[in-house]
Amino acid sequence: MSERGKPLVEVRNLVKHFPITRGVIRQKQIGAVKAVDDISFDVMSGETLGIVGETGCGKSTTARLIVRLLEATSGEVRFEGEDITKKKGAALKALRREMQMIFQDPYSSLNPRKTIGSIIAEPYAIHGLETAEGARKKRVQDLMDMVGLNPEHYNRYPHEFSGGQRQRIGVARALALGPKLLVADEPVSALDVSIQAQVLNMLRRLQAELGLTVIFIAHDLSVVRHMCDRVAVMYIGKIVELAPGDSLYGFPRHPYTGALLSAVPVPDPVGGHRKRELLTGDVPSPANPPSGCRFHTRCPKAQTLCSEQEPPLVDKGGNTVAACHFPLTREEADSRLPALLSAADPVPATDEA
Amino acid sequence: MSSRETLLEVDNLKVEFRTDDGIVYAVDGISYKVKAGTTLGIVGESGSGKSVSALTTLGLTRGKRTHVSGRILFEGRDLLTLADEELRQIRGNDIAMIFQDPLSSLHPFYKVGAQLIEAVLMHRSVSKSAARDRAIDLLELVGIPDPHRRVDAYPHEFSGGMRQRAMIAMALANEPKLLIADEPTTALDVTVQAQILALLEDLQQRLGMAMIIITHDLGVVAEVADEIAVMYAGRVVEHSSTERMFSTPQHPYTWGLLKSIPRLDTPRSEDLVPISGRPPSLINRPTGCHFHPRCPYVRPQHRSIDPKLQEVPGEFGHEVACLLPAEMRKQIWQGLQAGQTPQELRHLVEDKEAPKAVAAAQPAQEGGS
């Protein structure tokens, strides 16, 4: 917390290619799925960085690379200034205490045969901490209290809990070792709407209390806007735009960001209608991405340059970096955004006498 | 809009499942109408009974341990009394359904075209080649590129969005009068979701069919539905036109849903207001108003009195099942709109309770029947 504003994580030219092989015995590589293809960004200490994008854009792979659940093909991930992509053994184990992850599916991420108490205590067992039985139990119950679970439920099993409570268990386990970095991969997309808000509010509260740095991955742009200070938009393994939340949602520069925002349904039948920009077709395969700008096949503003030359990720003003030859103008961006309801002017009532 | 004729009328439908743990009251006396060519959105969380009510319409919940009562009138015939064989004539023909997960709804061993042809041949006596032509037309209708080639593709060769399009093509094979879409876009990315919703709206206009869209996403229903029914614990708790549901929502659960989702069109700093607790068990349901354990505006009598769905005074066609007086609901909603929290507004409910003179006047208009 004290070093807020300094980068905690620096990602440099990170690449992850999953080989596509043919043959059973002598496997020959015939191609690669370029899940993450040369991305660089920083995560500042104490901030929440959101990563959004469609299925298969590489956002989850990026998260897994950062916490070393996957090995990078090339590139660097620096944590507190130190490259962690080559760490092994005891050094790697020590690193794991600093970065923890919470997963999307609260049903498959908890061992059904273990009690909640032992699930949350497992990080202590692995790292040989809090070895005194009483102290460990006390710590676990404090954690349960912190995430809003009843500490008396220590001896219950996962199946006795609802989805939202299970996600809280996952958060308690992730926080057990007091990590600096929390990576949340779609933490609320499996939850019911009324429960989502509970978990989101809890994550915000914990982050403020514990001074956590959070990488928040989600496909729901409204949730990401609510949670994040800065947002990175990914498309087929590349970051196409990275900006502070207010800039990104107020003035998206990349046409892909604009398309994503215009596609979000807004629960306001009267004022919510704006120009719908429908992307045609599907996301191209990351095994064989389009030449030049990868978005040119679906982009409404694409010109010949776009298919020939890959646009660099450069400053477009307002702290926004975007990779686009022909970024959206103010007018084009406005037409894609829902009209912002100001707090002073509530939803106009249509039939008030 | 009201001049259109009623296509489907669900009247006091109850669906109960007998399980080893007890009776699950999945759907508990719901009624709604769908007019020809219009869209009804049914909104609710998991376990609210929204899917079961739709599945029952098509007879898909029939079984030894299921008890169904009420009526489902489709063009005047009660679907619940039809024999399996008669229902099969209607299912996939007059009424079709699409499901949430397009991958598990398509058979992985058969080509997409073969599955479409099967849907056509089931209800029409045409030659196989005519059915194949129809399958290609259908794929073209739902916007699948290169349908002549794609008709011979397997489901795994399609992306998620294309599979959902193929499912829609199959549902449309016999030009249904009513299409039931159960969470049609939940498994899809926002960009693809927008495509599918636009497709459904376009098809509805071209083919004039009615739709029931079941979803948990208020944004989706705001875009496509003419009317909305909000379900909670097996009941409809609020029912109105889409405009009214968002401008003057009446039920505390609807308020909760509207205030608990982050939105792109409100300022960011606003904190989410979650609904406390979680959806109730449908085996041991709460007494009185089913929502009372989670309701921030609960009053003592709400724990024993079961609210009926009643029309909101002054709002034709807007029904709500809430025991709070209409005037009080209006005040609370205005407070919520102005950014006050349920805790801050709770006094509105409590203050009115003590002075009996005020309280006596309210139930007269509210608790009439």
Describe the structure.
The complex is a heterodimer of chains A (353) and B (369). Chain A has one domain: Rossmann fold. Chain A contains eleven helices and twelve strands. By secondary structure, chain A is α/β, with parallel strands linked by helices. With 369 residues, chain B is an alpha/beta fold. Chain B contains 14 helices and twelve strands. In chain B, strand 9 (227-232) and strand 10 form a beta hairpin. Chain B starts with 5 loop residues before the first strand and ends with a helix. In chain B, 50% of the residues are buried. The interface between A and B is large, with 60 and 57 residues.
Distance between the ends of chain A? 53 Å
CATH C-level category of the largest domain in chain B: Alpha Beta
Through-space gap between termini of chain B: 29 Å
Query: Averaging pLDDT over every residue of chain B, what do you get?
Result: 88
Protein traits:
heterodimer; A: 353 residues; alpha/beta; Rossmann fold; eight-stranded mixed sheet; four-stranded antiparallel sheet; 11 helices; 12 strands; 30% helix; disordered C terminus; B: 369 residues; 2 domains
Produce the secondary structure layout.
The complex is a heterodimer of chains A (353) and B (369).
Chain A: E1 7-22, E2 28-44, E3 48-52, H1 59-66, E4 74-79, E5 82-83, H2 89-96, E6 99-102, H3 116-127, H4 133-146, H5 163-175, E7 181-185, H6 193-210, E8 213-217, H7 221-227, E9 230-235, E10 238-244, H8 245-250, H9 255-263, H10 304-308, E11 314-315, E12 321-322, H11 330-336
Parallel strand pairs in A: 3-8, 3-9, 6-7, 7-8
Antiparallel strand pairs in A: 1-2, 1-4, 4-5, 9-10, 10-12, 11-12
Chain B: E1 6-19, E2 22-35, E3 39-43, H1 50-57, E4 66-74, E5 77-78, H2 84-90, E6 95-98, H3 102-105, H4 112-123, H5 128-141, H6 147-150, H7 160-172, E7 178-182, H8 190-207, E8 210-215, H9 218-224, E9 227-232, E10 235-241, H10 242-247, H11 252-260, E11 310-311, E12 319-320, H12 326-337, H13 342-351, H14 356-366
Parallel strand pairs in B: 3-8, 3-9, 6-7, 7-8
Antiparallel strand pairs in B: 1-2, 1-4, 4-5, 9-10, 10-12, 11-12
